[in-house]
Amino acid sequence: MTDVTGAPADVLHTLFHSDQGGHEQVVLCQDRASGLKAVIALHSTALGPALGGTRFYPYASEAEAVADALNLARGMSYKNAMAGLEHGGGKAVIIGDPEQIKSEELLLAYGRFVASLGGRYVTACDVGTFVADMDVVARECRWTTGRSPENGGAGDSSVLTSFGVYQGIRASAQHQWGDPTLRDRTVGVAGVGKVGHHLVEHLLAEGANVIVTDVREDAVRRVTERHPSVRAVADTDTLIRTEGLDVYAPCALGGALNDDTVPVLTAKVVCGAANNQLAHPGVEKDLADRGILYAPDYVVNAGGVIQVADELRGFDFERCKAQAAKIFDTTLAIFARAKSDGIPPAAAADRIAEQRMAEARARG
């Protein structure tokens, strides 16, 4: 089912001709009073209610926003399946610059749209939205996670997201070099915001050498002032070309691995928190052909969704951390499946996730 009443022609084309395909429901939301324009995409509810965050971003067009929602929702289906959660995949995007148009009225209107789905979609934080925003949304919608502890939630999910990525890097090191230890390994982190700066802490605690970059100077300064041993470089292009880099950890927006970046990567492992790192199909093969081990993003960055899912049954940090620690074993299992099937790790992860969703659909 797709609600497309009054949708522009380019949006309709994106909905019905997207190469992502297979979505159960897409809802276009508009509230003129608050200025809200949003897209809620439900890819699959085979494993349970769709779970995924709300991205608030100044998209260039409505069609671009729809395409991003479709892509992100599909990714959440695979992420939740690989994380062992009883949730399908969904995602919402709010169109606009959050610094300019975000308001209590807009968030409440958005909450009413989520509530209208009757629990088929559970929302949380993403790029451009924060715990305080979810507290507002929750006033209109009980299917909201990522709330503050004061409002019955678990708070910031970036802590466990970074922990899961750290486990993914350790598993990658185990597979690539025969030892999960990161001491004296050089790791480049692109994006040191909500998740990236926590990841830096984990890496330094184990004795890794860390190089960082971010488009926001204040984010870089926060890390380097706290940790003088951390080296900063001007941009991502400089980072990925750095000699002696062992691991590249993209922790900003998607599309980090593309036809321009893969040929110049010096790292032998790519493992980061960013969603949708592969810019297009075929990039995973390009990485494999260069001998670069890619840890599928939706597998290693699942710590956050593990946390927000747990919030629905009464949050317990230690229980969540124990589940997020399993990302180490899950990542190793994907590498083993990739080797046995003769395919890249990204394809192996997809096969495992698709099998779990298919089995759930067969059970009805």
Distance between the termini: 19 Å
In the CATH scheme, the class of the largest domain would be Alpha Beta
**Beta fraction of the residues?**
5-15%
> Helix count?
15
3D structure, described in words:
NAD(+) binds at residues 191-196. InterPro entries: Aminoacid_DH-like_N_sf, Glu/Leu/Phe/Val/Trp_DH, Glu/Leu/Phe/Val/Trp_DH_C, Glu/Leu/Phe/Val/Trp_DH_dimer, Glu/Leu/Phe/Val_DH_AS, Glu/Phe/Leu/Val/Trp_DH_bac/arc, NAD(P)-bd_dom_sf. It catalyses: L-valine + NAD(+) + H2O = 3-methyl-2-oxobutanoate + NH4(+) + NADH + H(+). Pathway: Amino-acid degradation; L-valine degradation. This protein is an alpha/beta fold. The protein folds into two domains: 2-75 and 88-151, Rossmann fold, CATH 3.40.50; 158-305 and 310-356, NAD(P)-binding Rossmann-like Domain (Rossmann fold, 3-Layer(aba) Sandwich), CATH 3.40.50.720. It is 44% helix and 15% strand. It has 15 helices and 13 strands. It has helices at 9-17, 62-82, 98-101, 104-115, 131-137, 158-177, 196-205, 217-226, 236-240, 283-289, 297-300, 303-311, 317-325, 327-341, 345-363; strands at residues 2-3, 25-31, 36-44, 50-51, 54-57, 88-95, 121-122, 186-190, 209-213, 231-232, 247-250, 269-270, 293-294. The strands form two sheets. Strands 1, 2, 3, 4, 5, 6 and 7 form a seven-stranded mixed beta sheet that branches. It has a six-stranded parallel beta sheet with strand order 10-9-8-11-12-13, with helices on both faces. Helix 1 (9-17) runs parallel beside helix 2. It is globular and about 55 Å long. Mean pLDDT is 93; it is low at 1-6.
